[in-house]
Amino acid sequence: MKRVKAALSVHLLSPAMEGQTQGSSVLSEKPLPASATRNLSSLGAVFILLKSALGAGLLNFPWAFHKAGGMVPAFLVELVSLVFLISGLVILGYAASVSGQATYQGVVHGLCGPTIGKLCEACFILNLLMISVAFLRVIGDQLEKLCDALLPSDLQPWYATQRFTLPTLSVLAILPLSMPRDIAVQKYTSTLGTLAACYLALVITVQYYLRPQGLVHEPRPSLSPPSWTSVFSVFPTICFGFQCHEAAVSIYCSMRSQSLSHWALVSVLSLLACCLIYSLTGAYGFLTFGAEVSADILMSYPGDGAAIIVARLLFAVSIVTVYPIVLFLGRSVMQDFWTRSRWGTRGTLVVMADPTGPWVRVPLTVLWVTVTLAMALFLPDLSEIIGIIGGISSFFIFIFPGLCLICAMDVEPTGPRVKCCLEVWGVLSVLLGTFIFGQSTVAAVLELL
């Protein structure tokens, strides 16, 4: 038994030891975890990263433009945030290579210590759980509108209600898509989901110029904010909409070609495409409805238009394809906890099932879908939780990447000037994330109360 424990200890500690002994080597030459399967192409990485961000936040951007006070302040906040969003992705790829870990929580735990690592796991589970609930609620709303358009009647049949359509879709589509053990499988469905999101942005843009009857056109929306504090109200939606950072480490460790410059290019292309789609949707949705825009932009349109019906259907497909990515990330945290529980309190090895095997993966997947489905059926309006989700997301976009960059400077030998600049950028990222979290959370709680 002592030989088994010694061998397992060497196997578990080898990635971290290799990352430290080879700290001076080029980033692309550093070893990755043995558990990482490097079978993801660069194009597949772009689509998965893009689809991770193109979620339910797309429906909320026109409402965020209104809350910000107009297009000009909303665009400025979006562009400034884009710099930190891209740098956060690059930092996470760099930190994954330095730490030799294949998951977001593993990177934070390896670089920042067990205390910050446990905080990361708690925020990770809470954030992804709430995102999954929001996704299911968006799917349920779109299915309800589709049933209203296809079955026009005062008394809807029982099979047209959310309590039937949403569980049925979860069992037939969401659950099977969430079962694979590797995130690289999602590159196929992510392509379809990205095209569906692009169609929604195109429909909203075209609908503004067509100006169908029943839409609000006057008065014209104001282009200046009523007060400077209203600009900050767009931060939660930006964090909620662009949050692909939770999947960044898993995507990076699954790529065949890995270097800092290559990963930076993938990050820039993904977020620029995402920014274009979000900006078109937010600007034209806001210009179409002005102050009357709904938190879910599709809810502002009449339900009987053919283009809107197709947009609802395709966007529901888009959310169905991104839900398994969120579930995969949340399941990885529970699998890490399962792995750690294999060792008893006195350091003895406890024989348990493989954390990525079907006997563990399938029950965790079913549990996740069941819990989020139950919460989604009783969730209030989507806008009431966007602020909370966006506030928690600031941890993964700003705070944890900044902390990882600061701690990585103690592992990676760099010049004094480069080290100082990177540490300053890490501190700035942490401070900005803390401000966004405090402002967003306080505003969301006050709105709920």
Overview of the structural elements:
Helix content is 71%, strand content 0%. By secondary structure, the protein is mainly α. Helix 2 (42-53) runs parallel beside helix 11 (260-289). The longest helix is centred in the first third of the chain and has 37 residues, at 114-150. The protein is globular. The chain starts with a helix and ends with a helix. The model is unreliable at 1-35, 213-225 and 344-353 (pLDDT under 50).
Structural topology:
Elements: H1 2-21, H2 42-53, H3 57-68, H4 71-99, H5 104-112, H6 114-150, H7 162-177, H8 186-210, H9 235-241, H10 248-254, H11 260-289, H12 306-340, H13 358-376, H14 383-408, H15 416-448
Helix pairs in contact: 2-8, 2-11, 3-9, 3-11, 4-5, 4-10, 4-11, 4-14, 5-6, 5-14, 6-12, 6-13, 6-14, 7-12, 7-13, 8-11, 8-12, 9-14, 12-13, 14-15
